[in-house]
Amino acid sequence: MAESKAAKAGRKKPETHLGMVRRARRINRELAELYPYAHPELDFDGPFQLLVATVLSAQTTDLRVNQTTPALFAAYPTPEDLAAAVPEELEEIIRPTGFFRAKAKSLIGLSIALRDRFGGEVPRKLEDLVTLPGVGRKTANVVIGNAFGGAGITVDTHFGRLARRFGWTTEEDPEKVEADVMAIFPKSDWTMLSHRVVFHGRRVCHARKPACGACPIAPLCPSYGIGETDPEQARKLLKYELAGQPGQRLRPPADFPGGAAAPAAAGSAGSAGSAAESAGGRS
Fold first, then answer.
1. How many CB atoms lie within 10 A of CB 275?
2. How far apart, in whole angstroms, are the C-alpha atoms of residue 176 and residue 178?
3. Residue 213 near residue 230, CB atoms below 8 Å
4. Which of 12, 20, 80, 196 has its CA 20 to 30 A from that of 45?
């Protein structure tokens, strides 16, 4: 029996690789229109501060890091200062970021390496950066792309999640995700693409309940419908400046529409850090 025209019309053809690439690049263009102010959400002055802040950002929010680093850099403004830090004193400062013992060890180790192997300067090459304690490809790409103006794709949890939801990759391993996405976009797009995708993951395409009904790129997303599709309910799920709230930076760029976040309340950060460290010790 011949297949009806209606059945043929309702059957969707598999997306070709070229079609996926075109759709991916259109998503990037539309995210650029949605987030013309996309930027690193860590406060920093110079490569060393960005390197340290990025190491601290593991398993915590950028806001928590931004609330912690002013005291950290006041106490240890240079790699030489941080290399000579007393571990227990450093741990107490960075406690709010969680996993503070492991992070303190990494920060002292990378600072010793900067002092002894790189003349106190943060290296510009990925192959050098990843030799530093606590520094992987994600951290190296953050520094290369945002402190040195180079190109790098930052595969954090948000980027990896959205890359899979957008159909750019099926991989879970960050390095494989990075390789797949590098093959789709020109090198000149890599750094800003990372910011835009991470912005969208934090504000709209959340891990547990994406705001599909309020997503401007929903028509381009093969995962549409995994979250809230009712527009009114979806709008309630939006975060940060899209919900009229501050972003994660205490010192945001001048064009950021969400305003500055507040410093940590006295006495609140330490308990959060202690809880995170305790949780880390059980895992």
1. 11
2. 5
3. yes
4. 196
Find the mean pLDDT for residues 71-83. 98
Opening angle at CA 85, ends 84 and 91, nearest 5: 160
Written as six digits, the tokens of 216 are 């401007």
- CA-to-CA distance for 52 and 54, rounded, in angstroms? 5
Q: Tell me if 118 sits within 8 A of 128, measured CB to CB.
A: yes
Q: Under a CB-based contact definition with an 8 Å cutoff, are residues 39 and 253 in contact?
A: yes
d(CA 93, CA 68) in angstroms, rounded, equals 7
Torsion angle of the four alpha carbons 100, 101, 106, 107, in this order, in degrees rounded to the nearest 10 = 60
- DSSP state letter for 130: T
Contact 64, 97 (CB under 8 A): yes
Quote the CA–CA distance of 230 and 34 in Å, as a whole number: 20
> Is the pLDDT confidence value at 269 over 60?
no
3-state secondary structure of 257: coil
Q: What is the pTM of this model?
A: 0.89
Give the residue-averaged pLDDT of 20-33. 98
Which residue carries 């992070």 as its tokens? 103
The count of other CB atoms within 10 Å of the CB of residue 165 is 17
DSSP three-state, residue 35: coil
Spatial separation of the C-alpha atoms in residues 141 and 154, rounded to whole Å: 6
Residue 181 CA to residue 141 CA, distance in Å, equals 14
**What is the gyration radius of the CA atoms in the chain, in angstroms?**
21
Token pair belonging to 253? 């760029």
